[in-house]
Automatic annotation (TrEMBL):
Assembly information from the UniProt record: Heterotetramer, composed of two GyrA and two GyrB chains. In the heterotetramer, GyrA contains the active site tyrosine that forms a transient covalent intermediate with DNA, while GyrB binds cofactors and catalyzes ATP hydrolysis.
Chief location: cytoplasm
NCBIfam families named among the record's database cross-references: gyrB, PRK05644.1, PRK14939.1
Keyword terms of this UniProt record: ATP-binding, Cytoplasm, DNA-binding, Isomerase, Magnesium, Metal-binding, Nucleotide-binding, Topoisomerase
All residue ranges annotated as the Toprim domain in the record: 423-537
Annotated Mg(2+) 1 binding sites: 429, 502
EC number: 5.6.2.2
Known function: A type II topoisomerase that negatively supercoils closed circular double-stranded (ds) DNA in an ATP-dependent manner to modulate DNA topology and maintain chromosomes in an underwound state. Negative supercoiling favors strand separation, and DNA replication, transcription, recombination and repair, all of which involve strand separation. Also able to catalyze the interconversion of other topological isomers of dsDNA rings, including catenanes and knotted rings. Type II topoisomerases break and join 2 DNA strands simultaneously in an ATP-dependent manner.
Name of protein: DNA gyrase subunit B
Site feature: Interaction with DNA: 454, 457
Pfam families for the chain: DNA_gyraseB (PF00204), DNA_gyraseB_C (PF00986), HATPase_c (PF02518), Toprim (PF01751)
GO biological process per UniProt: DNA topological change; DNA-templated DNA replication
GO MF, one example: ATP binding
């Protein structure tokens, strides 16, 4: 084959590849909503993180520009600019246009790009109207430019010599294509959370984020790595020991790092990562850790005779993990991701490796720090006692409800449908709103459960106490899928659970209490996307026989301006759901044709855990601060 033919074939392959990405973007980046949009940034940052893991880069700067573009700059070696033999084009052009080309250039031991949706920067390029790259390497500054993934003819150039004191590196700037993405508006907080996490997971790398639109900025650099991650997660909690337990090891090219701390909380939170990817579905690293943790704690407790109160029983894993905050991070040369969302680590060898490292290092730690071991075990024994008491209480409730003619709570106005996929449960604050909702609903598929007053704060009580609360019990029975370890989502009687609370501070508080209960004890409902917040309007504007509902003050003002020429006939403010008559409630908030529901998602489990601990825990100052920080943007209902 002649040189020319080869070039032609390569060119065609590139164009076909880019076209495939633009035709089916979701296949490459998961989705084209806000989540997919933010993935573009993560994809580019992952390439810089790879440079850092290879030991050549220690600073990454992400900038959101006013014109909607984002740049990611690093001080790595710079993307190669020499001519790629096979393609007869600059290597940077190949990396930017050929799917999965990035990793093939360099034999890296761990590569994070190429992970979850890790498809390489070429995908970001294909999904951008424009992409510019500036490279400092081989003594010069180089530029190249692309449009919708295709190189702009003549745009590759050597701009100037590098100054003697200039650092090598790469800056990639891209403009996401608004014909592909539903939104191209980046959210500072979303990026900040992920970049902070990356900084924890890759100690010593400085990662900064600057938003030129709002002049917000953050810089993260953690010498202590995941130790500082645990400190951060436990910031508002009371720890049972000062030092963070930490160990690391490398076996057969697989690096394992674990940090943990026991707290007096009732909730534990273990966050497992593989090659910087949050493995929400767990996997072999998590299993190995849990197995060894339970064994080490029981071995120590037995040898010290600390389990005499448990009628000869051993501690269960869940007892030991109560109040435990842990971060597990493994880096693997060839990670296998499985599960529904590809966030479960599948490599079978990892289980034994994590298990034996934990067994050895944690065992030694306990021998050397008997005070810490004793604190952790006392807490676990307490948890085991409560677990046994809860079991008894639950059996009692079950027996009781079996005796009653109907197991469903009396306050529930159930729907007629028995098809969970069509059925909705409105959990409504207060009896008066509950009454309106019962009258206004479509009883075919909408059930109403009124909840009175503030429900129990489940963040502060164990399951035995939680089950004593009538409001909580009514909700559990109405949903019908059990609670805690016994929870089975297949038994859920509704696939939409809609929290309908007033649009005021009390309403937000009740919603948060309900969300805490769902998040802590029925989390699969949230993960399956079954949980929603209703969005009742705040204002009703009338003008010349028409009515318009507004969700916010800005909405109201816009309507007055645009629909009423600045002169509304009447503006009504709804103070609470109870003020709406049944028809209004149906029309504005319940009727599937008109209503706006907000699906509750758990974007980031670590952030959600922290949020619930802060919002529902004992420490007052951080809560005040949190609410002050988030009061205006209502985004915290999003978990
Ligand atoms: C391929 C090979 C080499 C570096 C890179 C790619 C690279 C890619 C990106 C993307 C963003 N920042 C980056 N930095 C480096 C290694 C080249 C060598 O051996 O010098």
């Amino acid at each position: 084959m002649s040189q020319e033919n080869e070039y032609g074939a390569g060119q065609i392959q590139v164009l076909e590849g880019l076209e495939a990405v633009r035709k089916r973007p979701a296949m490459y980046i998961g989705s084209t909503d806000s989540r997919g949009l933010h993935h573009l940034v993560y994809e580019v940052v992952d390439n810089s993180i790879d440079e850092a893991l290879a030991g050549y880069c220690d600073a990454i700067e992400v900038t959101l520009h006013e014109d909607g573009s984002v740049s990611v700059a690093d001080n790595g070696r710079g993307i190669p600019v020499d001519t790629h033999e096979q393609y007869n084009r600059p290597a940077v052009e190949v990396i930017m246009t050929v799917l999965h080309a990035g990793g093939k250039f360099d034999n890296k031991s761990y590569q994070v790009s190429g992970g979850l949706h890790g498809v390489g920067v070429s995908v970001v390029n294909a999904l951008s109207t424009e992409l510019e790259v500036e490279i400092m390497r081989d003594g010069a500054v180089w530029h190249h430019r692309f449009e919708k993934g295709e190189p702009v003819q003549g745009a590759f150039e050597r701009v100037r010599d590098m100054e003697p004191d200039e650092e090598t590196g790469t800056t990639i700037t891209f403009w996401p294509d608004n014909e592909i993405f539903e939104t191209t508006d980046f959210t500072f907080k979303t990026l900040e959370t992920r970049l902070r996490e990356l900084a924890f997971l890759n100690s010593g790398v400085e990662i900064s984020l600057t938003d030129e639109r709002s002049e917000e900025s953050s810089t993260f650099m953690f010498e202590g790595g995941i130790r500082e991650f645990v400190e951060y997660l436990d910031e508002t909690k009371t720890a049972l020991h000062d030092d963070i337990i930490y160990y690391e090891d490398e076996t057969e090219g697989i690096a394992v790092e674990i940090a943990m701390q026991a707290t007096d909380e009732l909730q534990g939170s273990i966050h497992a990562f593989a090659n910087n990817i949050n493995t929400r579905e767990g996997g072999t690293h998590l299993t190995g850790f849990k197995t060894a943790l339970t064994r080490v704690v029981n071995d120590y407790a037995n040898s010290e005779g600390m389990l005499s109160d448990l009628d000869g029983d051993n501690l269960r894993g869940e007892d030991v993990r109560e109040g435990l905050t842990a971060v597990i991070s493994v880096k693997h040369p060839d990670p296998q991701f499985e599960g529904q969302t590809k966030t479960k680590l599948g490599n079978s060898e990892v289980r034994g490796i994590v298990e034996s490292i934990t067994h050895e290092k944690l065992g030694t730690y306990f021998e050397e720090n008997p005070d810490v071991a004793t604190a952790i075990i006392s807490k676990a024994v307490e948890a085991a006692r409560a677990r046994k008491a809860a079991k008894k209480a639950e059996e009692l409730t079950r027996r009781k409800s079996a005796l009653e003619s109907t197991a469903l709570p009396g306050k529930l106005a159930d729907c007629q449908s028995r098809d969970p996929s069509k059925s909705e449960l409105f959990v409504v604050e207060g009896d008066s709103a509950g009454g309106s909702a019962k009258q206004g609903r479509d009883r075919e598929f909408q059930a109403i459960l009124p909840i009175k007053g503030k429900i129990l704060n489940v963040e502060k009580h164990r399951l035995d106490r939680i089950l004593e609360n009538n409001e909580v019990r009514a909700l559990i029975t109405a949903i019908g899928a059990g609670i805690g370890d016994e929870f089975d989502i297949d038994d859920a009687r509704y696939q939409r659970i809609i929290l309908m609370t007033d649009a005021d501070v009390d309403g937000a508080h009740i919603r948060t209490l309900l969300l805490t209960l769902l998040y802590r004890h029925m989390r699969p409902l949230i993960e399956a996307g079954y949980v929603y917040a209703a969005q009742p309007p705040l204002y009703r504007v009338r003008y010349r026989g028409n009515t318009y509902d507004a969700m916010t003050e800005e909405d109201r003002d816009r309507i007055i301006e645009e629909k009423c020429n600045g002169n509304p006939t009447q503006v009504q403010r709804f103070k609470g759901l109870g003020e709406m008559n049944p028809d209004q409630l149906w029309e504005t908030t319940m009727n599937p044709e008109n209503r706006v529901l907000k699906r509750i998602t758990v974007e980031d489990a670590a952030a959600a855990d922290r949020m619930f601990s802060i919002l529902m825990g004992d420490a007052v100052e951080p809560r005040k601060q949190f609410i002050k920080d988030h009061a205006t943007d209502a985004e915290w209902v999003d978990i």
